[in-house]
Amino acid sequence: MLTISDISKSFGPKTLFENVSLQVNRGDRIGLVGPNGAGKSTLFALILGEDEPDSGTINFERNITMGFLPQESAPVSDETVLELAMATTPEMAALQKKLKAWDEAHPDDILHDHDDNIHARFDELGGYQLEPKAKRILKGLSFRDSDFNRPAKELSGGWVMRAHLARLLVQEPDLLILDEPTNHLDLESLQWFQEYLKNYPGGILMISHDREFLNQLVTNIWEIRQSQMFRYRGNFEEFLVQKEAAEIQQLAAFKNQQREIDRLMDFVNRFRAKASKATQAQSKLKQVGRMEKIEAPDNDEKTIKFRFPQPQRSGLRVVRLQDVHFAYGENVIYRGIDFESERGQRIVLVGPNGAGKSTLLKMLAGVLKPQAGTCELGHNVKAGYFSQYRVDVLDTSRTVFEEALDTPQRVTEEFVRTILGAFLFRDDDVFKKISVLSGGEKSRLAIVKLLLDPPNLLLMDEPTTHLDMASIEALIGALEQFEGTVIFISHDVYFIREIANKVVHVNAGCLTHYAGDYQYYLDKTKASSARGALVAGGDKAPAKAKAPVLDAVSRKEQKRLEAEARNARSKDRKAFFEPVKALEKRIAAMEAEQAQLVEEIEKPETYYDKPGRAAEINRRLSELSDEIPKLMGEWEAASGTLEAYDNSHSPA
Question: How far apart (Å, rounded) are the C-alpha atoms in residues 621 and 616?
Fold first, then answer.
């Protein structure tokens, strides 16, 4: 379908491609990868005819059709969502407009010959057959029936991109070119899209940061590196294995060649001045010059290493919900749920769309207030919430660098530049005004700001959206060294596997806890796929008939035994928990007293109106400065004992 022959492309002194040749055949599933700035988007622009190569040719099979989904922003006008999904060609879009205009102007009139020709042409192009297909695809991408006739321009940017994706799938071009197609999809629409593409009849060429998506779909990886294109057979995980083996082999060959060059040059340097050896020395020098030099493996993609500021240590109990009710109007999400998180946990919330994952996260963050019940933060807990709406708090009049520097932490400009570089703000990018950044760039900057001044309770909703693989690795590295607590939602299976040490399944107002990592959750639920398990659960609560049938006496006895067991565990735990709670209370009281005394001693009237009061305050402040660290030591020891007890009694 597509043949690329010996193309080269440079921008100024930087060469992106040099004599690259490629071929795309029908049915190919190709993932395009490479570090930021390597030229992935430029290659797409060359294929689409938006730019020209400096040399070489790009040829297409006759009558081939192509469809392209950009990473962000696609145009809309006055069409409805359904009309946009059916606008598979410019002619089809024009015919739809004419038919719509006629129907609106003459709702009761019969068709004239001219108008009849429009209908005939619309029918000839398959317009009437497109509608059911478009509706089916729109539903797969989570559009509702009531959305079909909405003006597309009323939609948010993410939903506009979904509508354009639907248009491409309805069109079904021979070659589908996708740039980060999963950025705007929720879990269930992503799962549907992934399964749909497995049976797609045409070829697919895509850029994606989603490893699981690539693993499920592609059979070839093209990697742009060092101005060349390297091709690998297999999915993304197989590519990583092959690439590592190739790099080891390349490094060995590089070292062997360097040793040979050093040996030859040593001879040249020793004997080039001796008449009897000059000819041999010159010959060896020419031998070095004729060598095809092997380059050392490229390390551009290695994650930048840095250490983020660490938050203040929190109490053992970080956040707690008790008997919480929450509803949106008549739609009840939670009725009497309990939830508790402890220091150091990395909890991922999974479950079907609409189950209440984001609602739970927002209640923990204080963005939503429970309509009944309580939400309490623990001792010394500072919560930070990251959602797509967080970008709205950025000061758009500042540059990226100015905004990143605006942090309570003491950080150097070099340190900030390093972190910004890890999240793809490099060179002059840091001097861009925030007002001109894309949604993805604002999202990355919001993550940088959050990590520069991290709270000790980090609540994150889809943090990897709009991040490329290198940035995801940087975020994982930051969270691995993070000493606080993380509760998050994500559709990125790789990210979840790297971060989560506990899973909470949310479904039909119920929370099911799994005291292990994501693989533990998959094993316990006997999930058929890692991606599908993220949305497993369906719309309804588990059927009561699945529970063992007990008579009234058995139920009563069972409840009595369960209550006794709970009471016994609670009594045992209380012996460990009460000292921790008492110490936290004493420390909080002393810290409050300390703050009040500091405020008092700073007032002039303390010295003039109350003789001796300043000396009294100083003595008490001195006592508190000794007592608080001692109590903190006792509290840490007691917290450790409680934590050990809980770990030894945690459910399997």
Answer: 9
Alpha carbon 307 to its chain centroid, in Å, reads 20
Q: What separation in angstroms does the CA of 378 have from each of 19, 71, 82, 299, 317?
A: 61, 41, 49, 43, 5
Could you please report the per-residue DSSP string of 423-438?
TT--GGGGGSBGGG--
Determine the residue type at 49. Answer: G
Distance of CA 353 to the CA centre of its chain: 17
Say if residue 322 is exposed, middle or buried (CB neighbours under 10 Å; 0-12, 13-18, 19+).
middle
The pLDDT tens digits for 46-92 are 999 999 999 999 999 998 999 999 887 777 788 889 989 988 777 77
**595 against 314, higher pLDDT:** 314
- Euclidean distance between CA atoms 50 and 128, whole angstroms: 33
Residue 606, Cβ density class (10 Å: 0-12 exposed, 13-18 middle, ≥19 buried):
middle
Decide if 80 contacts 150 (C-beta within 8 A): yes
175-179 and 2-11 as β-strands: parallel, antiparallel, unpaired? unpaired
Classified as helix, coil or strand, 181 is coil
Rounded alpha-carbon distances, angstroms, from residue 242 to 221, 248, 297, 574: 11, 10, 14, 54
Both tokens assigned to 130: 């497109």
State pTM to two decimals: 0.68
Contacts of 470 (CB under 8 A, 6+ apart): 35, 36, 301, 303, 422, 424
Residues in the chain: 652
User: What are the pLDDT digits (tens) for 124-153?
Assistant: 666 667 888 999 999 999 899 989 989 888
Residue 117 CA from chain centroid, whole number: 50
- The answer to whether the CB of 464 falls within 8 A of the CB of 495 is yes
Residue 39 Rama label (left phi>0; alpha psi -120 to 50; beta): left
Average pLDDT, the chain: 83
Supply 479's token pair: 């969270």
End-to-end, the C-alpha distance of the chain in Å comes to 54
Measure Cα distances from 75 to 61, 160, 260, 301, 597 in Å: 28, 8, 58, 33, 62
DSSP-derived letter for residue 184 is T
- Rounded to an integer, what distance in angstroms lies between the CA atom of residue 379 and that of residue 581? 9
